[in-house]
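Minimal example, chain plus magnesium ion.
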Amino acid sequence: MRVIRERTELRGIPVSPGIVIGKAYLVDRRKVRPQERVIDADGVEAEIARFHCALDESQRQLQELRVSYERQKLGDYGYLVDVHQLMLSDRMLVQETERQIRESLHSADWALWQVIQKIKKSFEELDDEYFRDRRSDVEHLGDRILRNLSGHKHENIADIEGDVVVVAHDLSPMDTAQMDVSRVKGFVTDLGGRTSHTAILARSLNIPAVAGLESVSDVANGGDAVVIDGLSGVVVLNPSEEDLAHFRERRTRYEAYRQELESFAALPAVTRDGHKVRVAANIELLEEIGNLRRYGAEGIGLYRTEFLYMNRPDTPSEEEHFATYRRVAEAVRPFPVTIRTLDAGGDKVLRSVPLQDESNPALGLRSIRLCLREKGIFKAQLKGILRASAAGNVRVMFPMVSGLGELHEIRELLEESRADLRREGQAFDPHMPVGIMIEVPSAAVTAELLAPYVDFFSIGTNDLIQYALAIDRVNEHVAYLYEPLHPAVLRLVRMVVDAGHRQGIKVAVCGEMAGDELYTLVLLGLGVDELSMHALSVPRIKRVVNHTSMAEARALVEDILRHGTGREIHQAVEEYMQSRYPGILDPMEQAVH
Ligand code: PEP
Ligand code: MG
């Protein structure tokens, strides 16, 4: 097991603000194939010793398991322990792994994984069914040793005990949704970026997080002290006394700043020249509704309903949809609630929805495409939303629409759902506003054709940027190319706004861009009517809206559209904001430096 506990500072992508100091808990990476890692020749003995430590730890755990079986009168299962213990001392497993470490200079994890694959293959080739079935024993034992090699102890993120910060190679949104936030104080991952759904969920849960650290799960040991600075993206393992003093002081300043922020919550979002902008919140979890009033959000501009479908084997019934949405609508009244229908796929994998194993999931059978295929699942949600609309303040919105053909199909199913409800004698609002997200470039380009069939557009910049610039939003290697101010993105947004306005419909932005004050003037200048963001950002954005005018925002947009690259535009906007609004741009950062 890793025992080096020296101070290590890493820099990643800050994805959820706040500062936390805690003990590292390495999340089980079962089923995760270890990375191929080559070691120095003089590190061989240490690597073999590490392998033996993991074997000893596995032996100890198996012994504990035997005792626990006996205590629970499950002694018959002791034979499973026997099998695993026998395999643990198997020559092939031990000596072959050692040989691989010595000869190919591979890390113990990689060497062991290779050996396990070989043993499994030899079992597969046996005729005897009993022996063939021992494959899974080999796999389970391999998982156990690999977990011990990486310092992992528990299997289930929901079972974490004690206050910890989670260190993981990657976390799925489901893992994150399962976290018990009374225990998990923050998390850091090797993979991911700001707009991954895991990051979005971390912000909803209000826990500091840093992603894209590339190697944190390799260098951290379980139990290491860890500082996570979700403002700057700095993560320090085994911090010094000075580090601790510095980050505690920063945390105190950040907490004071957060409190001060709330004083802007009550501001109306009106520019100095009298232009009203709706500033609404995005929610993922029902627990967030309380934040809306606290931070002054004027309703919900995006309710990501896929979190209703997570961590369960079945899909929600119409009744459950109805009850949930009615609760939200009543809590938010008189402001509107924009309910987005199921947006599964991409980085949101659900157990209950039959997703294919695709090589390119972001471009695959996901989101609205999947709903149009799985009509039963879709109609249960549509009917639930329609019934909740009887409360009067519900709007429905469809994700990932790529063109008019899909929109016609959606409208047909919506009509069918209305007819069903009429037959069943259920009440609903016949005028419930219907909108679509514009997040696929083909929809942006054909916004003119789509506008006559909807009541509003909401631009999902997270995906629009991903698809327009061909940048995977969860891939940290191309995060530097993910440019919200790329001239192509700005032109697409303008195209959508102009098409919407020409046909008398409002256009919102509900991607992460809406909650970052660097972009507020640009979005206003492009003509966006509504901004929807994480509730915590609402006071900051309202403050910017209050300080500016539409004339100023339009002039800034005219100016920046002359530039040819995202980098130049970014620089121009940053310089403008810094000189015109010193202290407003990213005040979180400035308050805690
Ligand atoms: C978007 O794509 O901008 C968006 C708001 O939807 P999501 O982040 O859930 O994909
Ligand atoms: Mg999206």
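Residues 44-71 form the longest helix (28 residues). The mean pLDDT is 87.
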